[in-house]
Fold this protein.
Amino acid sequence: MRGNPYLFAAYAATWIIHIVYLGTIVSRYSRLKREIEDLKKPGVRS
Amino acid sequence: MKRAFPILGVLTAILLSYALYEALIGAPTEQTMGDVQRIFYYHVPSAWTAFILFFINFIASIQYLVRSNPQTDRFASYAAVIVGLVLFVVPFFVTLPEGMRPSSVATTGVLITGLYFLIRRLFSHPDTDVLAITSAEVGVVFSLVNLVTGPIWARPVWGIWWTWDWRLTSTLVMWLIYVSYLMLRRFSSSGETPLLAAALAVLGALCVPFVYFSIWFFRTQHPQPVMGGGGSIDPRMWHALLINWLAFSCFAFLVCWSRYRLERLQRDVDEAHAMESLSDPRESVR
Amino acid sequence: MTPPAGITRVTLLKDLRLEWRSKDAINSMLFFSLLVVVVFSFSFDPSAEESRQIAGGLIWVAFLFAAVVALNQTWAREIRNQVLDAYRISPAPANSLFMAKTLGNFIFVTVLEALMTPLFIAFYRLRALGPVWQLLLVAVLGTWALVVNGTFFAAMSLRTRSREIMLPLLLFPISIPAILAMVQATTAILNGEGARFWIVLLATYDLVFTTVCLLLFETVLNAE
């Protein structure tokens, strides 16, 4: 029972790292999707 | 194809939950270290997954370099077959270092050759570069998990955060090599990046055996606490370990798939930008 | 057609001649080496016995910094005068250029090491308990390991942003097994212990990486 905070920390750290990484993928993906929609619309200039 | 993704996502989530249960409850408690040892079930699969991903990066980089030229392409294909054959045959005639079984080396040989041709079949020449960056990046993430869980495990067991255990040290160096690969990709101007990155990936991958071997020898001279411990492992622990490895492999597959799609989309957007600036009436010289 | 070795020799001699005439890099490198040794002497002030334990590491870190400064200007002259484009068009094999540059850097860094070593020996009162010829062998193999990868990565960094920082970023991680071997071998020889494993490792590393760099340099040179 002694090691429990460390056990929790290790598992939490693992999932935090994975979720943050997935988050960056998702946000970049939606931003790019929006950008490509803008590019497809004729005459839309930044 | 796209509908498979959510289905696989759900299946992976279920598998991960089952694996978590096995790690926390199903597996027996270790005698000396107690519950902290359960970190092992996340620490080790992350390492194995990272290794496989870096190996995929190696193959993808080689293919990016050789497939532009039919001669080098053929040469590399022969080399892949020969490597597999050697690994398949040699273990049965040579005494292996302790802990290695001939059947595992032979299987690895077959898998290496199989993986080479599978990638060759599934990915076109330009796509091998997309695969290369995907596998390197996801590999760095899994390797980071390995490097973070290691010290968290070491602290309660040995009282120190970093043990300079040879495996952990080698993983750190390998991680640094692939981070430098990602840095090159980020800082290089986009024209020639894939070729340069592929060359760096080959050098880096060749370096990894040197890293492990040199640090292993260094640690036998200057011993430090060894993580994970050798020796036999309780079959229920082995089962929990394998289940977690399977679950994380499926998870890694999905993460790679997402990253791959993102990279393809990025390239489509870049291409669209390029086409637009080419056809922009303001830019034409008349 | 000129044989590749001939091209290497000609290119190398040209570089050495240019360097000798301008003495640009040489002078700054000389002063740099002296500064490094002095700064290290202030940072670490061990007794004679202790110094034999840490000298290996100290010396090679100092050499590594000197090597990076030298490597960063490997291609500077070529870029200034658009020589690389001319080289790409010419039928000369890329390998010859690479070997010439690597050998030039090797000579350069070796000169720096030769200048820094007596200073280190004096400041740290070093005395090798093992055979000195082995130390020279380690110096040659170790310097070659740094220089062959360094020249390759210097070429790779040419068209990156922050070119100067890119070289050490790429060079250091991959050089770690070689650096470990150099340091351990030097420490072992200084203390009269065996260094055979490390020397063999270093030689193998040199062989593998020289071969691969030669194979891949053409790709790097033509990447555009």
Q: What stands out?
A: Chain A has one domain: 1-41.
